[in-house]
Specification:
It contains 24 helices and 18 strands. It is α+β, with helices and mostly antiparallel strands. The chain folds into four domains: about 230 residues, no CATH class; about 160 residues, no CATH class; about 120 residues, no CATH class; about 110 residues. Helix 9 runs parallel beside helix 12 and helix 13 runs parallel beside helix 15.
Length: about 650
Amino acid sequence: MMRAPSFHSDPHVQFLSQLLEEIGDGGMQVPRFQRPLVWGWERRLELLRSIRDGIPIGAIMVWRTSTVRIDCYENLGPHKLVEPAENATRQYILDGVQRLSTLYGALHRPPITSTADHGPLFDDLSARDGEDFSGETGPFDVFFNPKTGDFVSPELLGSVRGPVMPIHLAFDSVALLRYQRSLADAGDESLIKATDQLARAFRDYKIPVIPITTDDINLATRTFQRINSQGAGMTEAHMVHALTWKPSFDLQSQLLEQKERVLAEVGWGALDDDPILKACKASFGLDVYKTNAQEFSEALLSSPETLDEVFAALSRTARFLWVRCGVPSPDLVPYALQIVVLAEAFRIEPNPSEEVIDMLFAWFWMTTYGELFAGMSGDRVQLAISDIHATVLDGRPKWTWKRPFEERPLRRTFDFRAARAKAFAFRLAATQDQVYGNSQGTRLLADAGRRAFLQMIPWSRDRKDVYSSPGNRFLIAPNELQVFRERFLAGLLTEKERLAHVVSDAASTALENGDPLEFVRRRSDDIAQLERAFLTPLVNQFRRVDDSIPTDENLISRALENPYATVISSNGRDRFTIKIGDLSTPVHIALRKDAEFWWFKTSHAIHTPLQAGPYWTSRPYDDDAGYALRRAITGLTDYYRDAIDHDLKPSEGWLVAG
């Protein structure tokens, strides 16, 4: 049990001056898991204006502990901080660092001229602003213009005419009186009154303080992560840094140095800390989600060389994703956890065989197309890591996911953040690579990212579904959009351009006939077929050795699980009769297999009032019986669903016999 602290454990209110004194005296510390001051001058000046006007600036939250000792900043900007007594209960600021740092830097005096080994909390800001300390006036001083009643940053001081007051005088009565005497000599009593009002506002200002009193580091970690989720972006890396810091090991410096030295050359210098730390946990055999900061920190301190191994593995992962998969940067990887799992694969086997590389390639695209990392629990992530170990070490694919693999369909509206949408984007890029050569599509995706996926058919109120459809997304350089769109809408694309952008003859005909809905349907079908041809051989690698990959019977069963289709009869193999939505007309579907594909034939097509004509697919086949059946059914139900969504009343006349 934690012994009771010697000060308040309940929320309370303190004068601003008392809070700043506590920081200076070591009674309140800034832990190194907090980021340095990142506020620009406008935000800092706005904070001071709030205090001047008596507007609340929010509570300060502190973590109070009698046993946990973590590394803290020794300096705040130009100000030296005092180390608390050895047995004293510690107070670490969890929420309010940006505010208190701004106030302490502006109001505390005198400045120091030396810098401790740990560096000042304001290091990042100094580098960004490009300002150096100069005598007693550094980049943290703020001035008050008594004529305007507003504050002035150091960078604008030279543009102010007339007297200005360093606001740290507000807490120094003697120095303030001396300054006011100089104003009296100028003969303007209004300036003295303005400075008096400012000093009184700061001296009378109070701030609520909310303490979290606990020795449970997990609770403290969760608390600061949650309260800062909307703020300066706190992460687990900051807590681990504080717990592992010592003169011979500085985690933040190590991460920055390794990113620059190892990852920058492969275009991954901006990789977030989170997948790096999760890859480190995986290398220790720790749960990437459940392991707390304390346990992870102890493992890292016992084997700091693990960082070198993990960064080398991440570099190999980056090269694999770019050269083999056409994924140029970490922000385009569908799931950050894919980076973690692949890094572990390349850590345990730095030079895998071509057969293993092929399996990793298949694993990456299957987990992407199946959206298998969406909402995944920690236990499932650990199982995925175990599977990748077995795959790499045994040279045989292993698949023990909770649910069998199934390609997830594209959403009706294109959202580049979704893994399935990224898979779609990469197929379009790979198609352009094949047509134009020189990795043109992939490089465009690398340079422009989501900005390169643009709509060709313009938005209109009665065709919002067309505009937002994936079938209306083209991979095109943003600066070429206007010219390309004009040529596209005029039907002037060359055969090579149509091939590169997956625009078939049937889709072109639909556009020429003034049927944009039919165009996006046709093009979506064409791209789906392209994706199927790419994915099927990869799935077969795992299907040959793993019974959890679905058979034709499994896929047929899933194809029939459509909310807009009711099965009337079926032989379970190649003959099916269904009803569409509320329509009573039976639709018969027949499947047949030739040497290459499964073909389907439907007794009816659908022609709703939203369509220019009945929809007969230009690709009545697929690689598997289940996928062929799904194409046959969705070719009817998708149009039916769109009509219902537009509040149209179902009619038997929508079904047209073939």
